[in-house]
Design goal:
Low-confidence stretches: none
Structural class: alpha+beta
Number of helices: 5
Length: 188
């Protein structure tokens, strides 16, 4: 699992990552994992000696893994909601920052998807990334999710898990959304 997550997060240093709270469940088409992932950074300039600072990467996330999948690498992050000028500016800045290392992909034929999510890929050209319309419609119907995918792995979490850690009542719907997404992947 750690190696798969390192590939999704495009890191050359997987030893910096730590998995916590890992639970596994088998499904007919693969496996699902519940986990939290942190990244450690060694800080030499602290008083009292060197120490490692941990940063949350994926908190209370679900990883769906099926060996038959061949997903393109992409990520979907929610845009700020609202029609105000500040939300518009923040969304344009987020898109410009994302375009530094990724190609942003637009899906204008899926109602509300481009308004709710910023979808990008590190692969070039972005036009080579094809996703099933059913998958995109499911994603568009559930705002405020964080999604990373590539190869045989799909990682799904709520975007605000750092500030609002989900309980069992919130994780059950997330699991069901993940199952809907995996069914759409399998149907293609």
């Amino acid at each position: 699992l750690l190696q798969r997550l390192a590939v999704l997060h495009d890191t050359k240093r997987p030893e910096r990552y730590t998995l916590q709270h890992v639970f596994q469940r088998r499904l007919p088409q693969g496996e699902v994992y519940y986990f939290s992932l942190t990244e450690g950074h060694f800080n030499r300039s602290t008083s009292g000696g060197p120490r490692t600072t941990q940063y949350a990467v994926d908190t209370d996330a679900l990883a769906f893994i099926a060996p038959t999948w061949q997903l393109p690498r992409f990520k979907a992050t929610p845009r700020l909601g609202g029609r105000g000028q500040l939300a518009g500016i923040a969304n344009r800045l987020a898109e410009a920052a994302m375009e530094i290392k990724h190609d942003v992909i637009k899906f204008p034929h899926i109602l509300n998807l481009d308004e709710q999510y910023l979808i990008a890929t590190p692969e070039t050209p972005a036009s080579s990334v094809t996703l099933p319309d059913g998958f995109l419609r499911v994603l568009a119907s559930y705002p405020n999710l964080q999604l990373n995918a590539g190869g045989d792995t799909l990682v799904l979490a709520y975007a605000n898990t750092v500030t609002h850690s989900p309980d069992e009542q919130r994780m059950t719907p997330l699991y069901n959304i993940g199952l809907q997404l995996t069914r759409e992947i399998e149907a293609r």
